[in-house]
């Protein structure tokens, strides 16, 4: 089995230089790093990850806290895409990933803290932002590095990566208003998730800035389950038949809404327009193709992972956050020209 000395001899450098390359020492030049890695690959040398972990007290593993069970998470294309973004950076930086899933808030807390206390991860990506989040408080007490994908309640005292959901939604609703819609229904999700609060706030701001009165009866809440969303959509339109458009706070909810509209014998967009959010891959394949907001899911994942690895490595003294831009993707579900519209108001 090849050793560090074999790599050093092949690359024409000292064994200590090979060791520094393996441990990502910042003072190694990119040219030397490339030469050593090529030699490692050529002679088939693989560092002993377990031994390195024992010496450095690091696992080179990032924990991903999913808001659902594994089965539910992978049924939502959002998580497949964000994992692709996370994985692209983790692989490049030689980090492994540990999925942490659960079936409820208490189980999530217990499973996550167990992974932290048993030193199975160096840091965590929290793939949701919730109100009154006990997990974040516990992680801070344990001094565990973490980044939230979303806007946490205490946004000034956390590391986080997100879109500007309020402004992006405001622009989406103003797009509908520009098409002549004034009676716009909303199908939102669980109010404990801050993303849905922000998107509802963006809806309200759009109405206010365009002189349209907010009607709380036009807003219904669903769990995201297709059957419930379909039923609630039908009930909303039967109660308020003058609605001309529906804003669904994410694309999966929009799919259920479109099914409900069709079951009422109505057509999208001839009778009622529908817009969604997230630009899931399926949104361009359904009939009609869904007008939605592209939140650049891959970039959300990659940006959050870069931030977490930086926090683990550098231990920054001040909190910061990053905002990933969005774009409105205009398709067939609300008419208008096909194309892309800036969703950030820039």
Task: Describe, in plain words, how this protein is organized in 3D.
The protein has 346 residues and is an alpha/beta fold. The chain folds into three domains: 1-37, 434 Repressor (Amino-terminal Domain) (Orthogonal Bundle), CATH 1.10.260; 61-163 and 297-315, Response regulator (Rossmann fold); 165-294 and 328-342, Rossmann fold, CATH 3.40.50. It is 45% helix and 14% strand. The protein contains 13 helices and 13 strands. The protein has helices at 4-11, 15-22, 30-43, 49-56, 70-73, 77-92, 105-117, 134-141, 165-178, 194-209, 226-239, 251-263, 297-314; strands spanning 61-65, 96-100, 123-126, 146-149, 160-162, 184-188, 219-221, 245-248, 273-275, 292-294, 321-323, 327-330, 339-342. The strands form three sheets. It has a six-stranded parallel β-sheet with strand order 2-1-3-4-5-11, with helices on both faces. Strand 8 (245-248), helix 12 and strand 9 form a beta-alpha-beta unit. Helix 1 crosses helix 2 (15-22), helix 6 crosses helix 13 (297-314) and helix 9 (165-178) crosses helix 10. The longest helix is centred in the last third of the chain and has 18 residues, at 297-314.
């Amino acid at each position: 089995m090849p050793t560090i000395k074999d790599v050093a001899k092949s690359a024409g450098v000292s064994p200590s230089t090979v060791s520094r390359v393996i441990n990502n020492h910042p003072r190694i030049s990119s040219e030397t790093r490339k030469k050593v890695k090529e030699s490692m690959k050529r002679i088939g040398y693989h560092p002993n990850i377990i031994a390195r972990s024992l010496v450095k007290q690091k696992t080179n593993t990032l924990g991903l806290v999913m808001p659902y069970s594994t089965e539910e998470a992978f049924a939502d294309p959002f998580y497949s895409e964000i994992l692709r973004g996370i994985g692209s950076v983790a692989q490049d930086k030689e980090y492994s990933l540990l999925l942490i899933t659960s079936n409820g808030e208490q189980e999530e807390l217990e499973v996550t803290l167990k992974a932290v206390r048993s030193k199975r991860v160096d840091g965590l990506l929290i793939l949701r932002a919730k109100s009154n989040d006990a997990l974040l408080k516990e992680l801070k007490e344990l001094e565990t590095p973490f980044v939230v994908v979303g806007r946490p309640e205490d946004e000034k005292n956390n590391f986080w990566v997100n879109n500007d959901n309020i402004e992006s939604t405001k622009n989406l609703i103003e797009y509908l208003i520009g098409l002549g819609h004034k009676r716009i229904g909303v199908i939102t999700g669980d109010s404990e998730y801050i993303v849905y609060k922000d998107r509802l706030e963006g809806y309200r701001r759009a109405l206010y800035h365009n002189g349209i009165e907010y009607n709380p009866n036009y807003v219904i809440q669903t769990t995201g389950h297709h059957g419930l969303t379909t039923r609630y959509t039908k009930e909303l339109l039967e109660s308020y038949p003058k609605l001309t458009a529906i804003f669904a706070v994410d694309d999966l909810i929009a799919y259920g809404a479109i099914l409900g509209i069709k079951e009422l014998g109505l057509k999208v967009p001839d009778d009622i327009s529908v817009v969604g959010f997230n630009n899931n891959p399926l949104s361009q394949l359904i009939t009609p193709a869904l007008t939605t907001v592209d939140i650049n899911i891959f970039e959300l994942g990659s940006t959050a992972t870069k931030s977490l690895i930086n926090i683990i490595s550098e231990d920054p003294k001040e909190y910061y956050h990053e905002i990933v831009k969005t774009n409105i993707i205009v398709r067939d579900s609300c008419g208008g020209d096909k194309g892309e519209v800036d969703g950030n108001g820039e």
